[in-house]
């Protein structure tokens, strides 16, 4: 189940892996560029390909699936039902760009900056919760003071591809065992949680550290998600540019 550029990179890796046969590909249908690249990889083969919103929830699709060993979900935006998870004979691998159990849920790269938590990437089993399954492997990734959220986001994407490519042979060869998460240490972030940091109140007090961290956490490329409302009631978006001085 592949999404975004990371999904393409993993599909390409598995397509060329000598001991792996991909039997089905699921796409969200949202990212046409990478979906097309994935389709071209498997063009003319026997791989079943499904695209659209929640294609894995359709009974007629599930009934056509051949027997398979693993489910691999790469930045897949939908939760899987228990009956889908149970179809895998062996196990599953989900990608999450955080050091689980910290920062489960949405936008962990934003909360790494906002809350000054350690960043990282995790491969874990899929269970009935949200990013709660046992961990195959994970790696800490540095956060730099000059990072805006897009810089950290893309660094995490690159690291999780590398981690998977290093770990896949160990997973399918039963050379590593997934470790249960310590749920007492867990934190979870929803979409609504991140939106609470967007508005800057002009008459409120912030430390310099807090305001800079908020701005860099809510800057993604040229887009600023932070904003304030001026005296005329206009919403003004704010972004920040950070460069290390030589």
Percentage of residues in helical conformation? 25-40%
> Domains counted in the coordinates: how many?
2
Strand content: 15-25%
Class of secondary structure makeup: alpha/beta
Radius of gyration from the CA trace? 20 Å
CATH fold field value of the largest domain: Rossmann fold
Mean pLDDT: 95
Number of helices: 8
Question: How does CATH name the architecture of the largest domain?
Answer: 3-Layer(aba) Sandwich
Euclidean distance between termini CA atoms: 43 Å
The low-confidence parts are none
Quaternary arrangement of the chains shown?
A: single chain
The CATH class label of the largest domain is Alpha Beta
- How many β-strand stretches? 12
Biggest sheet overview: 4 strands, mixed
Shape: elongated
Let me know the CATH homologous superfamily of the largest domain: Formyl transferase, N-terminal domain
Q: Provide the succession of SSEs.
A: HEHEHEHEEHEEHEHHEEEE
**Largest beta sheet: what is the strand line-up?**
3-4-6-7
């Amino acid at each position: 189940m592949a999404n975004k550029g990371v999904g393409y990179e993993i599909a390409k890796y598995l397509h060329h892996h000598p001991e792996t046969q991909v039997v089905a590909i699921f796409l969200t249908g949202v990212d046409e560029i990478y979906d097309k690249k994935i389709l071209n990889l498997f063009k003319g083969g026997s791989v079943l390909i499904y695209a659209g919103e929640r294609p894995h929830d359709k009974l007629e699709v599930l009934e056509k699936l051949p027997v398979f060993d693993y489910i691999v979900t790469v930045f897949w935006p939908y939760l899987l039902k228990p009956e889908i998870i149970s179809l895998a004979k062996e196990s599953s691998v989900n990608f999450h760009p955080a050091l689980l159990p910290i920062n489960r849920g949405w936008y962990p790269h934003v909360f790494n900056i906002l809350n000054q938590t350690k960043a990282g990437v995790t491969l874990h089993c899929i269970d009935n919760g949200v990013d709660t399954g046992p961990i195959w492997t994970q790696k800490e990734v540095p956060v730099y003071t000059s990072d805006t959220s897009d810089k950290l986001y893309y660094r995490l994407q690159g690291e999780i591809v590398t981690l998977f490519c290093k770990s896949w042979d160990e997973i399918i060869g039963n050379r590593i065992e997934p470790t249960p998460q310590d749920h007492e240490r867990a934190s979870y972030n929803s979409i609504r949680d991140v939106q609470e940091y967007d508005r800057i109140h002009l008459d409120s007090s912030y430390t310099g550290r807090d305001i800079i961290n908020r701005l860099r956490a809510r800057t993604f490329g040229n887009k600023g998600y932070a904003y304030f409302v001026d005296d005329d009631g206009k919403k003004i978006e704010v972004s920040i540019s950070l460069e290390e001085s030589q």
